[in-house]
Amino acid sequence: MDLLPVEIKVNVEGDVTAALEALGESDGAAMTTRRIWFAEGRDGVAQGRLPLLEGGVIVRFRIDGGGGPDDLTVKLRPCEREQLVGRFSAPFESGPLAYGVEEDWSVSGRVLAASLVHDHPPGALPAAVRPEADPAAPIDEVQDQFVHACAPAVRLDGLVALGPILSAKARDVPLGDLVVNLETWSAAGLDFLEASIRVKPKSGENADELTARAERKQRRLNEAVRERGLTVSEHSESKTRRVLTALAEAARQSG
Q1: In which domain of life is the source organism classified (predicted)?
Q2: What is the per-residue pLDDT across 174-227, written as a single tens digit (0 to 9) for each?
Q3: Which of 31, 37, 86, 230 sits 20 to 30 Å CA-CA off 152?
């Protein structure tokens, strides 16, 4: 596999609205709104566990709030390159499917992530996340093969949808000498703001050079956030785990 892009993420503590303004994004109309659900094992959730997440598998539904396309993503995170076998050893696109592999960097460390995204027409996915529905129904054959080949211990059956998470995203926001994406999540009494940048390999660049360049970008992103009077979260758990834990507990108590 060639050099991989690096996505660098910083979570910002404190009031989300004030933080957005401090980071230069005060126009809510410019943000794309979506509702997000995650699928998890129904029996596991009832027992206070997140079996898919614990197995390194994420099943995510994103439903566009403006009438745009929906998408269903099956992701392995964290994973190892040795897991990514067969056709999943390298990125590809095929019709509505797009498969990619990248490094995810955050305060909790650096991990490898592999994602298989299936775009769906607007309005195609809400039925799959209703309380009585089977969230596994729209998982297509290739996504099922992906999990079977690369995470065979995880089963995509007996699932329940957890959500919704209300999300708003602004792309390509200038932040000093950086251009960042800003995304908010709100669910189960939790509010998050994430600032992220993507560092792509350059032609002729080797692995050490890419890592050094990404490290400089990571330092600059943290500095840019702090320079605006904001606090970078030092929480070791990802926002996905924190939100899913809260949503699963709410589902367990209501069930």
Answers
A1: Bacteria
A2: 999 999 999 999 999 999 999 999 999 999 999 999 999 999 999 999 999 999
A3: 37
